[in-house]
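I am sending you the entry underneath: sequence plus fold tokens. Let me know what the token row says about the fold:
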Amino acid sequence: MREMKPEQEDSREIKDELQLPEEEKPGFWGDSLADSGETDTDEKAEAAYYEARRQERHERILLRRKRRKRNRILGSVLAILVLFTCGGILFRKDIGKQFGRIRTAVTNGIKTTGNKNSTDNKKDIDVAAVTGITPTPEVTEEATPTPEVTEEATPTPEVTEEATPTPEVTEGVTSTPEVTEELTPIPDPAAAAEAERIQQVLAQAENCAVQYDYDQAISLLQNDAAYGSNPDMQQAAAGYQQTKDACVVWSPEQVTHIFYHSLIVDPSKAFDGDYKQGGYDQVMTTMSEFNQITQTMYDKGYVMVSIYDLAQMDENGVMQGKEVHLPEGKIPFVLSQDDVCYYHSQDGDGIATKLVVDGDGRVRNEYVEDDGSISVGDYDVVPLIDRFVEAHPDFSYHGAKGIVALTGYNGILGYRTDISYQTRPDDLNDDKKAWLDAHPDFNLDTERAGAKAVADAMKAEGWIFASHTWGHKNMSSVSMERLVTDTQNFKENVDPLIGGTDIIIFAFGADINDGGDYTGDEKFEYLKSQGYNYYCNVDSSRYFVQIRDGYFRMGRRNVDGYRMYYNPEMLSDLFDTSAVFDPSRPTPVPPMG
């Protein structure tokens, strides 16, 4: 059977429903009235009544047809609104304008329909007055005029992420779906990039402030082009200034200085009963002890500062003391480590063998395991402090770490960088000979390049270097001739790898005099002529600082087995020795001398 179009169905429906039942046809009733002898008045009233019913049915059919047409229009409008809503998120400016035009058109259409309904209602009232029957409002086939769309700019509607509900359509009421006028704003790429840059500057300033460099934090913010118009930057700078103003000021004479040697990773190998056990027990610290001491000092408020934070040469070559500014409860201290060379004599004794730079650019240690394999990790002071500061940046003042004191006769940092490994002089010691025999592919340039790479990475992390004399010489008793030779060896073999240094940390802690001023001392005058301005010995006092025009001098406190065992009270301001003392350490610790 051929399918009929909607218009054909509506036409057929009108024709079918207008066919009244036989008993309701005018002819039937006419015969009845004639037979009953009713008056012409009654006949006309009944004819008018059924004419009104016929008209009512006709109007209902037309209304149903119009509703179907209206629903199709509403469906089209909803589809257009959804398309424009989704498209507006990506093309807000252009689509938003068109969306506004359509909304205006729909609004005008609603008004037109409303006016038409008012006219229809008036006609309904007139029919009711004549017949006493309230008919359904007349619905005409007249098309709703298309509203005029003006070119006036309509604000871009904002579209929310919520789903738009399908509007409820009620009979006899024309409704338009409500559109939530919200659009997700499309960020300006330039504005977004600037906002991200400002956040980066704020983060940099905060990193400086965490390490107590309030002046640098304030400078970063105030020198930024956005500072004048950015309240976040202004508020942060004001906060940093307020924190700095409340800081406690420390003079150099109030700052203590502690030091370690290389750490013992495996006590069972260091304390194995051989001839080196006593020395390790006296002057070394185990890795376990070091980690506990570091944590305890941090918990007590200690903060690492650089020796350069305490005093510095001015433009006239005169040493000037400086101040350290720390919040209430923080305590400054200087850290150093001696003999970071990983001597041949320590091989196999449970101590790291070298410093390296790993794939992430971090300084780590190599350590030889029992089976001869090499592990890379944090086994000595430098990488352990680096990792600790990564986790606790407020343990460092202005990014400072410690001083690494180097000799040179076995090379530095675990690399065999001394010229003697290449020239092989007659007095080459047995340890060097054995190492060279085990490494026939030795290349001096390669070793020096490796050491320099590590030194550069350490300096970038805040570490500084010092001379510990090339041959680990006792400067209080060495001859002047030997002192000169030793200094030149350091200048030639070590300085080029570390970038030079103006700090000397005396081997054995032995100063060039008994503590009086250096003025007129021959050894001092020579060392001063070689560029040394900072001099550090070993002193059991909590504080020993001397600032003179030509130098800065500081005593250091040894944190090792000897001091923890015999003089725990001398370290009580730093930590409780009974809480950190490694039970694997042999006792009694051998006395000095």
